Amino acid sequence: MSHPATLRRVTAIAATAITAVALSVPAAQGAPPEETLRSEAPRDLKIGSAVWGQNELLDYDRKNPTEFQRILAAEFNSITPENDMKWAEIHPEPGVYDFSGADAVVAFAQANNQEVRGHTLLWHSQNPQWVIDASASWTCQEARDVLEEHVRTIVGRYAGEIYEWDVANEIFQDDWDNGGVRLRTEANPFLKACAEDPVALIGDVFRWAHEADPEALLFLNDYNAEGINTKTDAYYALAQELLADGVPVHGMGAQGHLSLQYGFDTSIQANFERFAALGLKVAVTEADVRMPLGDDGEPTAEQIALQAERFDAMLQACINVAACTSYTVWGFDDARSWVPGVFPEGYATIMTEEFEKKPSYSALLESLRDATPGKSPRTPPGLNTLNR
Ligand code: 9MR
């Protein structure tokens, strides 16, 4: 009498088997799944891009993404709001917050299984006019109150949704005339108001951020901070001082804005290692590699190759140092790069304006793949047989 039930079971198993076979067909016969930067990333290394949420993500429709949004989701497992969390954007008037761009970045990330790097809380640039005006007469306590309210509001709003924060950005300025670098106690309105003890203020910004989101890793971040140099020596000393004071500082970010006009300091890995030895995380936070272009606006073959080497050298340092948590490019396509607006240079990102992948992209992909256990270096079709 159990026959019909057995039959049903057998039929069900058969159906399952057929489904399994049917499902396995595309994988067996079709193209292999698309390799992307995020799919090839080793360990828990995050591969990120900056994105301007206000410009690119407000209209996001998951089922109908723009080409830019499709690539952003496919290639990266981390995104950084390029401008949306900066003071002028998110806190344009006293007591007035505009979270629209930042919310769009966080929503996009969550929809696409990405993490968010917050950027940034204490910076000399992109402060709103009201901060600039008010700061003319600030006492240190007044500056502290304004900054504390801002930090607790922003970090608190996104608590649990941001894995790393660039808390203090570019707080050292180059001061070559005086033989080194010093804290930006003139251009940064908050440090200026507290110039008598700027380190105490910096420490408290990290403390406020940590209280507002105990899970987020809190970073110092700067440009010209790749190799071992006067500036990173200053950061190293500052990090030691903050750590000795019990400040919750967790990482040092090297922005990685390179230009082919200058040499590349290969001590980046050694620099990362010394910060890691302090117990800090490190990250490449804003990588791009710009270059002067000819009259035709095009790079030479040599420049294209050299750009790939530089992008890759920064990634190699990150891969080789276990404390390196993330490698972020400052925009992935030339059409959205900040570079041409500021320098007489261009071609700074890993994809062209038409989203064509440059050799720089391929170099990153290969290095990520090679660093992933179980993945073997890609061999061009046919080469295997020829070699045997
Ligand atoms: O890419 C950002 C650009 O859109 C802004 O206009 C500019 C304003 O200063 O900031 C750019 O991002 C900077 C980042 O926040 C900090 N490091 C240097 C980056 C390039 O200037």
Task: Describe the protein.
- This protein has 388 residues and is α/β, with parallel strands linked by helices.
- It has one domain: TIM Barrel.
- It is 44% helix and 16% strand.
- The protein is built from 16 helices and eleven strands.
- Strands 1-2-3-4-7-8-10-11 form an eight-stranded parallel barrel, surrounded by five helices. Strands 5-6 form a two-stranded antiparallel sheet.
- α11 (230-244) links the parallel β7 and β8.
- The longest helix is centred in the N-terminal third of the chain and has 27 residues, at 3-29.
- It is globular, with a radius of gyration of 24 Å.
- It starts with a helix and ends with a helix.
- Mean pLDDT is 91; it is low at 1-28 and 379-388.
- Bound molecules: ligand 9MR.
- Residues 82-83, 125-126, 169, 223, 255, 286, 338 line the site of ligand 9MR.
- One of its GO terms (biological process) is xylan catabolic process.
- It comes from Actinotalea ferrariae CF5-4.
- This is Beta-xylanase.
- Residues 367-388 are annotated as: Disordered.
- Residues 61-367 form the GH10 domain.
Summed up:
Belongs to the glycosyl hydrolase 10 (cellulase F) family. The chain is α/β, with parallel strands linked by helices and 388 residues long.
Topology:
Layout: H1 3-29, H2 37-40, E1 46-51, H3 53-56, H4 67-75, E2 78-81, H5 87-90, H6 100-111, E3 115-122, H7 129-135, H8 140-157, E4 164-169, E5 172-175, E6 180-183, H9 189-193, H10 198-212, E7 217-222, H11 230-244, E8 251-254, E9 257-259, H12 268-277, E10 281-290, H13 301-320, E11 324-329, H14 339-342, H15 359-370, H16 383-387
Parallel strand pairs: 1-2, 1-11, 2-3, 3-4, 4-7, 7-8, 8-10, 9-10, 10-11
Antiparallel strand pairs: 5-6
Helix pairs in contact: 8-10, 12-13, 13-15
The chain binds ligand 9MR.
